[in-house]
Amino acid sequence: MNMDVRDLAGRPVIIGGGVAGLMTALHLAPEPVLLLSRSPLGADASSAWAQGGLAASLGNDDEPALHLSDTLTAGDGLCDKQAATRIVHAAPAAIEDLARLGVRFDRTPAGVLRLGLEAAHSQRRIVHAGGDGSGREVMRALVAAVRSTPTITVVEGFEARRLAVEDGRVTGVLASCSTGPVFLATGRVVLATGGIGGLFQDSTNPLSSCGQGLALAAHAGAVLADLEFIQFHPTAFDGPGRPMPLISEAVRGEGAVIVDETGRRFLDGVRGAELAPRDIVARAIWRHLADGHRVFLDAREKPGVTFAQHFPTIASACGRAGIDPARDLVPIRPAQHYHMGGVAVDLAGRTSVPGLWACGEVASTGLHGANRLASNSLTEAVVCARWVAESVAGSPDGSGKPATAPDLPTPDPRPVRPLLSRALGVMRDGEGLKEAARALLPLLQRHDAASGPAAIGLMITIAALLRRESRGAHFRSDFPHHAAVARRSEITLNAAVAAARDLAFSPTLESVL
Q: Domains in the chain and their CATH numbers?
């Protein structure tokens, strides 16, 4: 692509083409903005894969206070209550914004939004679009809106490699494209790069999502928060394909149950059973698998013959494996699904580095706490994008002078995957985490394609080592109980490296956390 970057200097740069990035760009209009996407818009974003929809208190029997209560309960004592309160109160208006942008939400014959139920929600409040194709439909509408907005310049095939930082603030983006490296001068950068699924062998996310935004922020010196909290979806399709097809919680919301090879519902003794919080269901399945059982989703009675009508994406994925969920048991197992941690931000999306914002899964607002409530993630991205855009628009540009961009390699997470999959799965222990830290440090120090993924893997590992308790999605067999005080964690790359060199934990690291 031919591009004169001098014509684009000073514009806000949004890195990432998922829901968070697209909505931020749309809210910034009519201010000129540059949106970088490593692939064609919508082709490689986790947002497009979202099945569950968006959570918002829209029913006559619901209200934001109930949504907040469910969110705080799922977050297991670690949510930022102020952030969660503001976000859930803004959720209904965000749904209206999406409808105005052309999202075709599922409605009853009377035209009322059809609301679904998912695990750990006390009311039906999940708004769907196209059944289990909610993310795809939201992305369709947002991509169309972005492409029709003349002040948004979309640059596809560009991937950010580093952020330029001078005197502690962002001054540009070092990117790579098919013609080589390029420097984009800007003092306003928004990270909207998604999650970390590509760091794990078993994930429901695109394998190309390997924490690139976290690495950009970490190398710029930003503080990252709650990295140890990684959500494993309890019902991924247990087959050979990677990434693993997701079987939405909404299927259980419509009555499907979890059984083993004998037909026994082994979750009967769990409070909430199939609709318990995700971490509880995932651990129960994990233990049952470890005991030598197989685990299945039984949707034959509910939703039964209407399965394909309500869940066409899931039915298609099962069909490719020769399984009809209306007649057959569906093999399942937990898989990495969502990262509650991310770049530490305030509600305006500002990070600890001036000139740098973050939105969506890459950010840690405090909404999700130790365990994300189902369907709160797309809601968070849509709601927070407006506040991020308002903050960016109100901030002066601090562009740096044009610089020569180094030709850094494309991140390669393959050497990291087996290390994180062993040490940072559904169940963890201190010795496994220490072993992973010792292996990740030399990978980081090689300064090659594995270094970025290794840096993020190391930061997650050290954060998990320092959380000597079990809370939400972070479960340690050597510390199986809650600590007396619930506190969020924060860490920098330098602190993680120092800790990896001294697994007795230096005073410096303890002061950071």
A: 5-193+340-393 (3.50.50.60), 234-334 (3.90.700.10), 409-512 (1.20.58.100)
